[in-house]
Amino acid sequence: MNDVIPENSTSAVRPRPVVGVSLKLYFGLARTRAWLAEVAALRDALAALPRPVDLFVLPAFPALADARELLAGTGIGYGAQDVHWAESGAWTGEVSAGMLAETGARYVEVGHAERRRHFGETDETVAAKTRAATHAGLVPVICAGELRADDLAGAAEETLTQVRAALSGAVPGSEVVIAYEPVWAIGAREPAPASHVRAVADAIRGALRDHDVRGRLIYGGTAGPGTYTELGGAVDGLFLGRLAHDTEGLRKVVEEIAAG
């Protein structure tokens, strides 16, 4: 599937829907390979959808070669869960955007709440990684979301601060995906209320219009079947976690979005 989307504008033309999956560190290499084969087997189902839906998956670094092999010819994109801001140098253990591009990766996740919490990443870090990703021709999947659920106005402002900072690093005209993930909804029993997501999503779209990028907006945070329908067009797709470990659940979500 080609990631051809219209410019961000007030046009009635909607961007093509997109679904992403991050495996985090749940699978070992053999299980990841088996899962990628199951995802590749969705090819015919994706081709039969009533409208195209872009699908991408983000396994751990060592599985990128498997993704390249197993997803070849399926139209399903793949990428990494992190990237370093430097192209080369004495950065032990890090992986550059250029190296990811060499693997055939199309997407890279930046700024996830877990990286902020556990590894001290800041808005400046995320902007630098966004700059590196877009400079290398990758599509950054920019994660943003507030910590607490008790203040909608504050939630929108906290999230917008993260989004604007990240977009400040994007190469003009580049493609980005914003993954709105309220931190309090990640791993929760239910996704964030639809009214809350719609309000913050409207604010994020305003930020996208203020920057020279081609952007799509997806929701993550206990997303699953029914989430996209309930959001009523507020987002362009979903960012899935453990629900997609069962590729039947992934298929159901993609089919729901295609029918929406």
Automatic annotation (TrEMBL):
Its keywords, alphabetically, are: Cytoplasm, Gluconeogenesis, Glycolysis, Isomerase
What GO terms are given for molecular function?
A: triose-phosphate isomerase activity
Location, primary (coarse class): cytoplasm
Q: Which InterPro entries match?
A: Aldolase_TIM (IPR013785), TIM_sf (IPR035990), Triosephosphate_isomerase (IPR000652)
Q: Does the keyword Cell membrane apply?
A: no
* The keyword Transmembrane helix is assigned to this record: no
EC annotation?
Answer: 5.3.1.1
What reaction is this protein's catalytic activity? D-glyceraldehyde 3-phosphate = dihydroxyacetone phosphate
Recorded family membership: Belongs to the triosephosphate isomerase family.
Q: How does it assemble?
A: Homodimer.
Q: What is this protein called?
A: Triosephosphate isomerase
Name its species. Streptomyces benahoarensis
Source taxonomy lineage? Bacteria, Bacillati, Actinomycetota, Actinomycetes, Kitasatosporales
